[in-house]
Each structure stands twice: as structure tokens, then as C-alpha cells.
Protein: MarR family transcriptional regulator
Amino acid sequence: MTPGLNEVIHAPNRLRICAFLSTLDQAEFATLRDMLGVADSVASKQLKVLEDAGYVKLSKPTGKGRVKTWASLTPDGKRAYEEHVAALKALIAG
Structure:
């Protein structure tokens, strides 16, 4: 893989998750799933990989009604995503 490219983030669905989350403080699981156009299990697996890498924080705030899962980029995740995008731009520029 090209130096600077991040193998964890590079997978298309994970790249899309990082790109989406980079513009927000957090997003609800269903929003991410719908944005990707995939099943719950696929979205969950991709988020788990990002969480295991320390790039995404998942939280389930308790309160009234149904408990929802929220995702946000960690500082490490934001840095890794920005470095990955910079490496892609450098690769494209030649």
C-alpha cells in the first residue's frame, strides 16, 4: 500500500463512514446505515473495525424510549482520516 494510506480506513464503507463523521460531532447508527445503503450487520461490522482501531467511539446514551447507538470520530480517527485523504490526493497528483 502507498505510504500514508491507512488500510483500516481505505475500505470503501469505512472511508465513507469517516468522511461522513468528519463533518459532524456524531451520527446515529441508522443514519450511517442508510447513508451506506447496507444492512445493519454490514454497518455494525464496519463500525466495529473502526472502533477497534481507536478511530470511532460508539456510545449508547440511556434515556426514555429506545436506546440508539451514536458514532463519532475520535481525535486519532480524525487525524488518521485526514492523513489518508492527504495521501490519496498526493497519489492522484502524481
About this structure: The two ends are 15 Å apart (CA to CA).
